[in-house]
Design brief:
With 169 residues, this protein is an alpha+beta fold. It is built from 5 helices and 4 strands; from the N terminus they run ααββββααα.
Amino acid sequence: MERNSPSASPALSVREFFARFPNEQACLEHIMALRFGGTKLDCPSCGAVKSEFHKLRDRRVYACSHCLFQIAPTANTILQDTRTPLVSWFFAMYLFCTTRHGVSGKELQRQLGVTYKTAWRIGQQIRKLSGEADFAGLLRGHISATNPSSGVGAPKGAIPPRARPSSAA
């Protein structure tokens, strides 16, 4: 299904989002896959090749099956040391990506069911991170854009807004 229209529904619906990230474990596994390529990796401590890292109970940490070296997938991210569930963070990021005009702290408070202080902090962290993101690599090659006010790309016979006669005269 093609979604070219800016008013088209997001690529991932809310129902699909919660099916993909139903709990803390699913979110942590996703972070582990993005940052480390999964749970089978070379241990930096004992040097075991393709060692299986297992999640420790009640902690956001994975440990090497050979030497028990621990890796925290959320370390050095905006999720480090947060007590807010990862599902709430992921849903806040989803809202920022799918909402056209941004998300206020009050809206995050309502949607996530957290205090305003927590919602405001989550929003600020996401805004800060997206402001620091390097999007230069995304705009490479041939880029085509239309400006509706210039008449470029407008249907035949359409008059650009600046060329229309003033109705106040």
